Amino acid sequence: MDKKIERQTLTLSLSGELDMRSSENLRQTIDTEIDRRGIRTVILDLHDVTFVDSSGLGVILGRYKKLLPLGGKIIIKHAPPHIYKIMELSGLPKIIPFENESTDVGRTGNAQ
């Protein structure tokens, strides 16, 4: 996981699997930065993610719910088509904006 912070924006570039084993680390990383630095925007770059399970989806949804009352947001970038499909089935693109340069899916939260 590569981490970059600019002002109140945390950008995380993830790789590999976002599953039960790795999702707790992601949750802790995001929560720590929200609490310590006042992060209000979290950008998750999923370009190199190969697999997401329900625990990974749960962490993303949980951070969305944590940021919402703070006036914050999550943005998901570069989700590979097979990862986007999993997220689409879970309903995430209806509430979280997706930005993909390589595909025509999910821009600003709406599947096209």
Short description:
The protein is α/β, with parallel strands linked by helices and 112 residues long.
Produce the secondary structure layout.
Layout (H helix, E strand, L loop, with lengths): L1 E5 L2 E10 L1 H18 L3 E12 L1 H14 L5 E5 L3 H10 L7 E2 L13
Parallel strand pairs: 2-3, 3-4, 4-5
Antiparallel strand pairs: 1-2
Helix pairs in contact: 1-2
Can you walk me through this structure?
The protein is an alpha/beta fold and 112 residues long. Helices cover 38% and strands 30% of the residues. It contains 3 helices and 5 strands. A 5-stranded mixed beta sheet has the order 1-2-3-4-5, sandwiched between helices. Strand 4 (73-77), helix 3 and strand 5 form a beta-alpha-beta unit. Helix 1 (20-37) packs parallel to helix 2. The chain is globular, with a radius of gyration of 13 Å. Residues 103-112 have low confidence and may be disordered.
